[in-house]
Each structure stands twice: as structure tokens, then as C-alpha cells.
Specification:
Blueprint lengths: L17 H5 L2 H17 L8 H7 L6 H19 L3 H10 L5 H5 L1 H18 L7 H24 L2 E2 L11 E13 L4 H9 L2 E8 L2 E11 L5 E12 L3 E4 L8 E6 L4 E6 L6
Helix pairs in contact: 3-8, 4-8, 7-8
Length: about 270
């Protein structure tokens, strides 16, 4: 895209959007080329030390989260411009068998491959030196993958007027059946709500619980993209929780303002 000989082929929709298309790929490349690769290569003779590389670079590996957050924007731009003469010419000049989008997927695949590597190493190192560190490194990578996955959902929240970055750490998110039981309102409405649960996607932050409605849309014949339309929020400092509802170990209660508002949440698997 910086080649002056190809500038005339760049579609207008792609002008000055290199950062959107590639995200922080240069940052990921620099980290691996200058730092992580050399540290891993130093473990060739002592593979039991590999886990320490992941533990030492736990914070650095968070760069994948930024890349994955940008991925939907990158994919949208690629769908718009991917079949242009510019990219065809780039692929021909580089003699690449695959188009650019296949390579832009590599960082997303890489972060998930780390866990497979560490799991395989654990199988070969039962009760040997470094096993405990390998287990800790695997837990670290799984935590990073979870953080990446959670953040991918978080950026799809729409309609929330505040700044989600001010809500504290995103602890977990997921889809649930939700019944409401409010003291205010007509009894018939309350009874109807009891028997017909709402499908809600919940985002639990340290300071706030967000209730959203999941929406899926087809984008130009490609895979469905999800968005989460904000519906309601509860401050965690003011809510109470009942672990079980009438002996059902798939349901728990969240209540607010002296049980003026009660939300019955049903999970897919047994809680306790």
C-alpha cells in the first residue's frame, strides 16, 4: 500500500485505511521477531523452561486482544475491497497462493495454538521438572483467550450511553434466560413475564451488570455478525444475589432496591 507504483490501483474505500486493514499487526510482528521468538529458541535445549517465556510475557501477549477487537472492521473493509485489482496485483507480485484475508487470520489462530502446544507439552512432562510452571502457563494463555473472546463480544454492545471502559474489568459474559418480577406494574404482565423468559446476553463488570438483547445480521451473504442492544443495567454495589431459586440449581436470583426489581437468571448447565 506504500508502493508508489501501485498507488493508482488502490480503491478509494481503502485510501488511508492501512491501520484498519492490518490492525496492530506490525506490533505483533515486532514482538515475535525481536523478543518472543529468541526467548523460545533459547529453550530448545531446555524445553522445561518454555513455560517461563509465557509467564514472563503475559502482559505482552495481550496485544492479541487489540488485534482481535479490530478484526471485524478489517473484515468489513476486506469484503468491500478484497476483489479489487490492487490486491490481485499484490498477490501476483508476491506469488502468494492465498489471498490476504487468509494471512490476516493467522494471529487469531496463533493465540489459540499456544494452548495446544502447552497441553501437548504437559502430556509429555507428567510429574517432571517444570510441570507446575507449564500448568500455570496454560492457565495464563487460557485466560488471555477468554479475555480476547470477551472483548470481541464487548465491542459489539450498542445503545449504551456510558463508557464501558469505566465499568471495571469484564469478568464474564454469556446468554441466559431471564424472568422479571417487579412489584410495580399490572399483575397480569408480571405473571406473563414469569412464564415467558426473555433471551438476554449479560455482561458482568466489577461495577455494573448490563442486560442486552443479542441480534444477528447477515453481512453481504457472509457469516452472521452479532451485536448486543443495551436494555438495562444494575450497579453491582446495590444488588443482592440468591444462589438457588426454589431448589432449581440452574437458576439464581438478582434483586435490586429491596426486591422491588427481581431478575431470575437461568443458565444452561448446573451451577452447583
Amino acid at each position: 500500500m506504500d508502493n508508489p507504483n501501485l498507488v493508482h490501483l488502490i480503491p478509494s474505500a481503502l485510501q488511508n485505511k492501512k491501520e484498519i486493514l492490518f490492525g496492530n499487526l506490525p506490533e505483533i510482528y515486532y514482538f515475535h521477531n525481536r523478543i518472543f521468538l529468541k526467548e523460545i529458541e533459547n529453550c530448545i535445549e531446555n524445553p522445561e523452561l518454555l513455560a517461563r517465556c509465557f509467564l514472563k510475557r503475559k502482559e505482552d501477549l495481550q496485544i492479541y486482544e487489540k488485534y482481535c477487537q479490530n478484526k471485524p472492521r478489517s473484515e468489513a473493509l476486506w469484503r468491500q475491497c478484497g476483489d479489487s485489482i490492487f490486491f490481485q496485483e499484490c498477490q501476483r507480485k508476491l506469488d502468494h497462493k492465498l489471498s490476504l484475508d487468509a494471512y490476516l487470520l493467522k494471529p487469531v489462530q496463533r493465540i489459540t495454538k499456544y494452548q495446544l502446544l502447552l497441553k501437548e507439552m504437559l502430556k509429555c512432562s507428567k510429574n517432571s521438572e517444570g510441570t507446575a510452571e507449564l500448568e500455570e502457563a496454560l492457565a495464563t494463555v487460557l485466560d488471555i483467550i477468554k479475555s480476547v473472546n470477551d472483548s470481541m463480544h464487548q465491542i459489539a454492545i450498542t445503545g449504551y450511553e456510558g463508557d464501558v471502559s469505566e465499568l471495571g474489568k469484564l469478568l464474564m459474559q454469556g446468554s441466559f434466560n431471564v424472568w422479571t418480577d417487579h412489584k410495580k406494574g399490572h399483575n397480569k404482565v408480571k405473571d406473563l413475564a414469569r412464564f415467558k423468559p426473555m433471551q438476554r446476553h449479560l455482561f458482568l463488570y466489577t461495577k455494573m451488570l448490563l442486560f442486552c438483547k443479542k441480534r444477528e445480521e447477515n453481512t453481504d451473504g457472509h457469516e452472521k455478525t452479532a451485536s448486543y442492544s443495551f436494555k438495562n443495567s444494575l450497579k453491582m454495589s446495590t444488588v443482592g444475589i440468591t444462589e438457588n431459586v426454589k431448589g432449581d440449581n440452574k437458576k439464581f436470583e438478582i434483586w435490586y432496591n429491596g426486591r422491588e426489581e427481581v431478575y431470575i437468571i437461568q443458565v444452561m448447565t448446573i451451577l452447583f
